[in-house]
Amino acid sequence: MLIKIGRPNDVKSSEITPQSVFMDRRRFMMAAAAGVGLASVSLPGGAPAAKFEGVVKGPFGTDEEQTPFEDVTRYNNFYELGTGKGDPARNAAGLKTRPWSIAVGGQVAKPGTYDFDDLVKPHMLEERVYRLRCVEAWSMVVPWVGFPLGDVIKRLEPTSKARYVAFQTLHDPEQMPGQRRAVIEWPYVEGLRLDEAMHPLAILAVGMYGEMMPNQNGAPIRLVVPWKYGFKSIKSIVRMDLVEHMPPTAWNKQAPREYGFYSNVNPTVDHPRWSQRTERRIGEFLRRETLMFNGYAEEVASLYAGMDLAKNY
Ligand code: MTE
Questions:
Q1: Ligand 1 near 169 CB (within 6 A)
Q2: CATH of 8-303, one of 3.40.228.10, 1.10.10.10, 3.30.1490.110, 3.90.420.10
Q3: pTM
Q4: What ligand 1 atom has the least distance to the C-alpha of 188?
């Protein structure tokens, strides 16, 4: 993401996910099928996979063409699994996503450690087809499976002091080889203002394309905030705290001049080293104009009324 270390621009054939990764994923999905509304189905060729059952079409979906599954799962940013675009898929199999728990603390009436299944079960799973716009100026359209982050926060009963939500990714260099190097300060952390987190566009995603979340895309649970640059969508979340003060965020700590707390998609505010006016949709040849708030201005612009978005980048 930071692009100070060498980074290949395109996926090489050597970066294509080895079959063993997919096989492991299928096995894992079968094991998980008893959990969060999953049903075993057969893939062509007889290999078993698991799809989510009873996913309803959620609001805000775009009918733009969806980026192929192969691109979304082989061109990733997940520094815990390596800094190259193909590294996360290559190193995905080592990440163990069951059992998985999420610790919740800070300004809530119901702190505790929630098992992944218990956290997810009360929620109706929705498909949300969102644009994801990376700060590196490429974009994708992804059908996520998830549920509103705001619904989870409501269940935790925030106190009147809660103003922000802080998130943390798993820190385990054994499972995540990228963490054996101090490329950024681990664990990866992110944050949202509470009203942003409560906005119905913000979701916790547990899958995509109707299937469980592939490890390289942030299994078993990640944030998706479609009006912000992709790096705000923190992956493989193990901790969530409701806090009084603006929490630190991984990329802001690393390069504060380049990455602010808000990180709203904004074509009028350039990154110090490149323009944000246009983007390359993965799979397309011509560049597109980047839209304010990634095209979600109607829904979210009011959250920032009166704020100077050049200062609050
Ligand atoms: N979350 C963690 N924990 N670690 C990361 O390196 N990269 C971010 C974000 N979430 C990242 C992360 C960046 S820069 C982007 S663009 C998106 O994940 C990419 O999501 P995708 O690989 O599913 O497309």
A1: yes
A2: 3.90.420.10
A3: 0.88
A4: 3
